Amino acid sequence: MQYRKEIDGLRAVAVLPVIFFHSNLFGMTGGYVGVDIFFVISGYLITSTLIEEIADNRFSILNFYERRARRILPALNVVLIFSTIAAFIFMPSKLLISYSQSLISVVTFLSNVFFYWTSGYFATASDEKPLLHTWSLAVEEQYYIFFPILLAMLWYLGKKRLIIIILSLSTASLLLSQYLSLKQEIDANFYLIFSRAWELFAGSLISIIGVKRFSINKAGNEILGIIGLALIIFTIFYFDKHTPFPSIYALIPVIGTVLVIIYGDSNTIIGRILKNRLFVSIGLISYSLYLWHQPLFAFLRMKTIGEPSSNIFLGAIIMTFILAYINYIYVETPFRNKKLISKNKIFQFSLASIVVFILMGLLGNFYEGFENRFETNPYLKTAQFSPKRKECHTVGENYLTPENACRYFGDKVTWAILGDSHTVEPAYALAKMLEQDGQGLLHLSFSGCPPGLLFEAKRPGCSRWLQQALQLLENDNSIQNVLLGFRYSAHLFGDHVKSYPAIPNRPTAEIFSNAFRNQMNASDDAKDIYWKSFVEIINRLLKSGKNVYLLYPIPELPANIHTLATPFSIFGGSIGNLEATTSAKYYFLRHQFILNKLDTLPYGANLHAIKPFKILCNNKYCPAMINETAIYFDDDHLSVAGAKILLTGSVIAKD
Question: What does the alpha-carbon distance between residue 460 and residue 396 come to, in Å, rounded to a whole number?
Fold first, then answer.
């Protein structure tokens, strides 16, 4: 097909908002729509090339895959090498295991499925996942695997029938996207190809119908091109993380992109803007820009206390451009040259690189994140999470119904824990204490699940699971004691890490489902609804004859324990004062609402309080380490050792 400079300019319009969105710069709160723009462009360009080859009887699936391999794999492999080395240096073992799994998913073109499966509250924060952005590459690759064959098979039915079939598939995909959005299946809707294919089909339809057939007249073409770019700009600045996406809302940037492709040729104002040298230059390196920005930002965030400043992000963006330019000149361009690298060599290179990265990922898993990297650093040896976390904690794809919940270690199960991920390590520490007396524990925890008994939580399955778990406890007379705890302030006001040392103040209603929010009256206070729901859980447990132990808020660190304990983990060396990490002032400001509420409860014979601040902190600080023992394994979850210190100093040990 004929080269269109303005398409490269449109690539710049797609990639820049993504970069600025991920760096929280310039108010591009909807910058994530850049990926949708890329999908439409890809659908258009790939289909245009395929149609020419099929029409001329030149189509070869091997030649198509060769072009895709030349285009995608070399630049990707360079970034994967960098990311893997950085992950080995900077990541704690738990995160390196997750990274190793994601590495395998990237080179097998299944990273969108992987991130769908592993999404959840306890999963590494999205902006600290170096390979998260590859989900979109996986969607495109899955499209490339099936679409060329489908197009070649349907081409001979005639253009009209082909258009009807592709339009029908596109409509079905869009309707599925809207259905998943309404059903709050957020992760499936976002990551999986079934709800994203319509965006690629939109680009394909432009090519099948033919751009010239859409032409009206000079004035009409100008107006529609301007409208298209305006729609894109509108979504970049108006959409935000609260916009249901993808859904019918995605029609706005997709239609905008379609209009720009059709009416933004070199004869229009929009076309002349987009084929400007600056836009075209950025567009040419857009693939490498996209590849490099997420790993750089992720590792930057990983080693920074609090959110990096705007100046630091600007420096990272400059570095992204430098690396992208080098990648384009010395990797992308040579590998596209068939005279330099033959078809056989590109396939051999592709296969070899895939095998190598799979082996690296398998090694990271097999050796459990190479924990021995930290042997020289005594601070990190005890920063361990519960061995039962993976087996017994509901998160992402690991959904456990309350009926199938773990019971350990003793045969006589008289205790239970109920809560979110903040109760997992206390559960293990408590079970170890109970084991000495031959008692056991029922483990009921759901990641990121607020006490949504009187409201429907946004997290899929949470409220239903909580109802079932509570009913199970009420009906089980062998359970005499329940340890109840949640990450209250994170539910109420949001995570603390990005805003530290400022106190986050996200609206509480964001943890409610869209359906529940729509039913709320203007006078309803989301915080009060949350508290009343929590109290209802307590009352039902007490009414069923249980002794209830309330876990007060656990102090949170300003950053991951690995960031605080070591600047470069495998090289050893500590930073900061680990025995004076989080101030008491910050703790009481952060948790002021829930502390005041918890203190009003009628503690007595059956209701007890476990106050981490009194046990783990002094009057001035809450430490990350006590006597070279890590109290946490990340920034907010207690380690097993920390949970043991907490419980042995609590009313449970005294009872």
Answer: 10
